[in-house]
Amino acid sequence: MCPVCRQSMVAFELEGIEIDRCVECAGTWVDAGELELIAEAAGASRGGLFEALKTAQGRRHGGRRCPRCSRKLRVINLGTGKSVEIDRCPGGDGLWFDRGEMETFIASLDEGEEGVVARFFADFYGKKTAPTQP
Q1: What is the pTM of this model?
Q2: What is the pLDDT of residue 116?
Q3: In this predicted model, what pLDDT tens digit does every residue of 90-130 receive, in sequence order?
Q4: Which residue has the higher pLDDT, 13 or 126?
Q5: Which residue in 12, 27, 35, 21 sits closest to 120, CA to CA?
Q6: Separation of alpha carbons 44 and 7, rounded Å
Q7: What's the 3-state SS for the chain?
Q8: Cα separation, 117 vs 114, whole angstroms
Q9: Burial of 126 (0-12, 13-18, 19+ CB in 10 A)
Q10: CA distance 77 to 110
């Protein structure tokens, strides 16, 4: 169930990774570990993105709740360039990206495992171009 509009989400699969998308509000849920799976499948090493996800302190986000465990989501800043605020389950179940946040997140990543993740989501969202490597 979507944490924003409480509508059912649709699961999409790309390269064996399942991503949940709300067709009503266009938000995206990424289960815990899926970003790591994307990076590992492409042979990228763990680095800054995953460390940021683990260590980012968040603040409560009103009434939004995790679609997996129903705990209140926490807002964290994510990204290496232009950061984006996303919602993270405090129990580690996953991440919620509101409409437009995934695109901002993709644009902020350009190298290492971050670039691999960005290219995966650029493919998922049907973008013609993915972030470039320096």
Answers
A1: 0.76
A2: 67
A3: 888 998 999 988 777 766 665 555 666 767 777 777 753 33
A4: 13
A5: 35
A6: 35
A7: CCCCCCCCEEEEEECCEEEEEECCCCCEEEECCHHHHHHHHCCCCCCHHHHHHHHCCCEEEEEEECCCCCCEEEEEEECCCCCEEEEECCCCCEEEECCCHHHHHHHHCCCHHHHHHHHHHHHHCCCCCCCCCC
A8: 5
A9: exposed
A10: 17
pLDDT in tens, 35-93: 777 767 666 555 556 666 666 667 776 689 999 999 999 888 875 556 788 898 988 89
With tokens 């973008």, the residue in question is 127
CA-based Rg of the chain, rounded to a whole angstrom? Answer: 14
Distance between CA atoms of 70 and 67, rounded to whole angstroms? 6
C-alpha to C-alpha distance for 55 and 40, rounded to whole angstroms: 20
